[in-house]
Amino acid sequence: SDSITSWFPNEILSAIMQFCDPKDLPRLCLTSHLLKNIATRLLYHSVSLSDAPRVALFVRTLQEGPGSALALLVRTFSV
């Protein structure tokens, strides 16, 4: 049997996932590789952090290993 993700184009899945609560996007990352890719793009598109320790962790994530590819996903950043 096909998974539900094969029923829709990625663009439709992305449009649907934009309506998800941002707190649910990390959970979607755990469900499949396809949903992980889409949810990750949504998570990193607009980043807003509230304090210096979180900013430091975020910057470190973007600098290390696969994090450098994540930096390309960030479109807006606010503190």
UniProtKB/TrEMBL annotation:
Source species, domain of life: Eukaryota
Residue stretches making up the F-box domain: 7-42
InterPro entries referenced in this protein's UniProt entry, alphabetically: F-box-like_dom_sf, F-box_dom
Alphabetical list of SUPFAM superfamilies matching this protein: F-box domain
A Pfam match: F-box
Protein's name according to its UniProt entry: F-box domain-containing protein
Lineage of the species this protein comes from: Eukaryota, Fungi, Dikarya, Basidiomycota, Agaricomycotina
